Amino acid sequence: MKRPLICAAGGFVLGEVCVLLPVGWFPGILVLMTAGVCYLWRKGKGRGRSWLWWILPLFLMLGMGRMLGDQKQTAWRDQVLERMEGKNLELEGDVASIGYGERSMSLKLRNVVLRDRGEISEYPSVLVYVDYGTRQGGQGEISQLRIGMRVLARGELEGFKRPGNPGEFDYGAYYHALGIEGRMYSGNIKIVCQEYSPYLDGIYRLKEGAGKILKGVCSQEDLGVFQAVVLGEKQELSGEIQKLYQKNGIAHLLAVSGLHVSLIGMGIYSLLRKAGLGFGKAGMTAAVVTISYGILTGGSASVVRAVVMLCLQLLAARMGRTYDMLSAMAVAALLLLAQSPSYLFQSGFQLSFGAVLAIGSILPVLIHWLEAKSRWEKTLLLNGVIQMVTCPVIVYHYFEYPVYGMALNLVVIPLLGYVLLSGLAGIGLGAAGGWLGAAGILPEGTALWAGEMAIGTGHYILALYQRLCTGFLKVPGAVQIVGRPRLWQIGVYGGVWLLIVAAAWKSQEKGSAVKESKGERDRGRESKGEGSSRCGKHGERNSGKGKIWRMSVLLAGMAVGWILLKAPSQEGFKAVFLDVGQGDGICLRTEETVILVDCGSSDEKRLGEQVVEPFLKSQGISQIDYAIVSHGDKDHISGLSYLLESSCGIRIKHLVLPWLGKEDQAYKGLVELAKEMGVNLHWMKEGDSIREGELELQCLYAGQEGRSQDRNEHSLFIQAGYGETGILLTGDMSEEGEMEWLRQEKKRSRAKGSRTEKAGVQILKAAHHGSAYSSCEEFLKYIDPDCVVISCGQGNRYGHPSPETVKRLEEQGIQYLVTMEHGAVTVETDGRKVTIR
């Protein structure tokens, strides 16, 4: 059988996916039954046995079993974390890695044992953070740490934060794929066993020393990039540079990937072969260096894939066998997924293996189909095929696509090798200079000059990268916010490209058959002495037309694929009450309009970057028509400030602030940012309204001038209406404000001769995060909502939502949802029927 390992890896992946499907194991059983029937049919036809019908079911079952085991471990972990919540534990484990942050040191511990009042239990790997400011008496212990030592830490064990909003990054899933199942913040640590791993610790010391040399030879602007490219360390990497590269589609340059590993591994192998070493010794040396480099850079999925494939390539050369890229890729995938099935759903795994799959399977077909012969044609096709396969992965995980990323990659990727070599040379020469300086051979102050010279090449290339990125972003439409496509859209996208590639492959087979028969005819003509020059010219013309037609099909496929991946447009009206921690953030959306009401948090320090921006982009939102601030407290404006001051690609057209806060300094920053970014500024007061299509926002109350200096008292009280559906947004209005509005409302009702009913009020956003001093009984009775949404943060120091407020809601039989428990609350309606999830 040709490439049985591809079948094995495919079966394993299919088995994992089958376990996660809503229909359960049925697809897996169906595949097994189909394979069995096909095997019996082939055997009955006398075609002999095929390994396919054994390999596919076997690895499908192995994949299902591994995923079920992973789910069982996850459930057990959740039980342990729930049981240990709030307890001060002793945790003992072996040091697997050491990292340094701005405020704390992080240790990855494996072979962990938990101790709780005499109860001992084993546990997977854990991250332990030791704060620099609380290491009382532990400095000596920390300075003696080596990789492999066993240490003891004390603290509370907790899980990683799971996403509470659409588009938010899933840290729990990410660390679970790495085999890390919790974290602990410890005041200090104690070494309980001095034994360590000389090999692993030597790699860590080498990385630490190389990092120090880079700090000495690099400028501050280049340091973070060189450390990321050479050492896989992103601690010093500037957030601005990271975003610049990501927006231009070259963020992969900042992660050690297969390209880095191949350059180093094959470079060493080629040098040793030229030096006269045999296949075995050269291959073994290159393999050891490559594996060590993979460990040094952190061993991400893409690095492990590259290391495994390179080692198999070296082994093939040693054995005199043909190296097959796809089979080597399958071995790497099986090893990674057997270790952690969750790798399958990580963007790094999907991008790395997707690129190799594109190069190994699709590229040869399209090169033959399009008759690409020149180097530049093949290079263009290579980049195009990789973009074609990785496009849905990028859009699904990052929600936006760099339109000119393909063109930019054609320039930057060939230069990456020089950046890597420049960094390695800088480290090597810097180390040599430092040694010579310490020995007194070189004068003080000139010890690192050779390293600085070596790093110069990389410096100018990085400067070129930055100029290119900045220039490309100025081109109209450089970055398209697409939103997260549905899985069915990705399936249709894949189906379209599968049809194109299948047609190309079929055409390739027919073309080969035609050429073979034509060659026989030509040979017959030559034997008879007949000429064929006219035929040759006619064939060239037909070939040229056919090439243009095939290229047109390919470009049409790209256009159709792009359209298929666009997030579906909004139908009806949707309100999302975001889980922003201790704060408020509400997004109102119709087919044509997006309105953001408040957006801030007092405990989520990176709210804009980690919650608001990903949410908006995941919904395909690139423009906010109105950003309304109920009042100027930080827990209502911090995320909005981020959107105004950052270049995240989300534009705000109108900023609406409360009229009574016009003289308040809290709004000064927002006003200046709005003017700087060309945002239209409005001050809202009672009676003002915004109407966009069927959606209307009316300010029912805006506080009373001169009554209180408390910012909460001039919170805007807004009713959003869509058809027969209404939502009341209250900011941080107090009970006093609620009662004042009620008095005014009743007064207006008496003037009209009857009480004014609140038409279609289904949803109330509880004022002041569910405080005891808001949502009073009389107010709730008058509004009579079907559901109340309370926005507050986990473990907040105010005790929100207040037990008194919860009791009032329960006594009146009002359903309530709390964002810290349920995550983001989404309300959808067509104007009549309301759905809450």
Helices and strands in order:
Layout: H1 4-20, H2 26-44, H3 52-84, E1 89-100, E2 104-116, E3 119-123, E4 125-131, H4 139-143, E5 150-155, E6 157-158, H5 171-177, E7 180-186, E8 189-193, H6 198-217, H7 220-231, H8 239-247, H9 258-274, H10 279-296, H11 301-319, H12 325-339, H13 347-369, H14 375-398, E9 400-402, H15 405-438, H16 449-473, E10 479-481, H17 487-528, H18 533-565, E11 573-577, E12 583-589, E13 594-601, H19 607-618, E14 623-628, H20 634-645, E15 651-658, H21 668-676, E16 680-684, E17 689-692, E18 695-701, E19 717-722, E20 725-729, H22 735-752, E21 761-765, H23 777-783, E22 787-790, H24 803-811, E23 815-818, H25 819-822, E24 825-829, E25 834-836
Parallel strand pairs: 4-7, 13-14, 14-15, 15-16, 20-21, 21-22, 22-23
Antiparallel strand pairs: 1-2, 1-5, 2-3, 2-4, 5-8, 6-7, 9-10, 11-12, 11-24, 12-13, 17-18, 18-19, 19-20, 24-25
Written overview of the protein:
The chain is an alpha/beta fold. The chain contains 25 helices and 25 strands. The strands form 4 sheets. Strands 1, 2, 3, 4, 5, 6, 7 and 8 form an 8-stranded mixed β-sheet that branches. Helix 24 (803-811) links the parallel strand 22 (787-790) and strand 23 (815-818). It is globular, with a radius of gyration of 32 Å.
